[in-house]
Amino acid sequence: MFLLILTTALSFFGAFIPIIIKPVLSLLCMKSKQESVLQNEILAIQREMSCTSAIDEFAKHARLQRRLNKVQEELQSRVNARLSQNVKLNLVITYGAQVLMGLLMLFLIWNYKYTPVIVVPEKWLLPFGSIISWPTDTAGGISITVWIVIAGTAARMATASLKSLK
Q1: Exposed (0-12), middle (13-18) or buried (19+): which is 21, by Cβ within 10 Å?
Q2: Residue 47 to residue 55: CA distance in whole angstroms
Q3: Which residues contact residue 77 at a Cβ distance below 8 angstroms, ignoring those fewer than 6 apart?
Q4: What is the DSSP secondary structure assignment for residue 122, as one 8-state letter?
Q5: What SS3 state is found at 115?
Q6: InterPro entries from the xrefs (predicted)?
Q7: What are the residue ranges spanned by the domains of the chain?
Q8: Which pLDDT does position 2 carry in this prediction?
């Protein structure tokens, strides 16, 4: 029973890794105070520009426009750097977690390959009982390899149905 619960939980956790990582990344890659300051500065410059006439005070308006362009470029470069960091972190965390899950599953398969995850009446598994129980050779037993495939498929289907609800 322990193997049944463990492999099912790990399969579902592995399928939900991308969904779990999104909130974690949003906390790690939040907008910085510098970006907020730059956005406030942009709004202040735009307010000041709306109060000045481009025709009557051309020099002042041109100075404000150059300053606005400079601040917008700086803000854009900071946002691009943050988004780039977000993508890198997303890839590293997602694939790192999936590699760890895969290694853990391989470890479980290697250590428990001759132990059935669950034993059911032999009639329930006919005519595929020998395939489903391989390599345990236990009548009515479901091997860990087959159970991981079944649980992983169910977990991916659950993930896909949750994504389609959004």
Answers
A1: middle
A2: 17
A3: none
A4: G
A5: coil
A6: Get1, Helix_hairpin_bin_sf
A7: 2-165
A8: 92
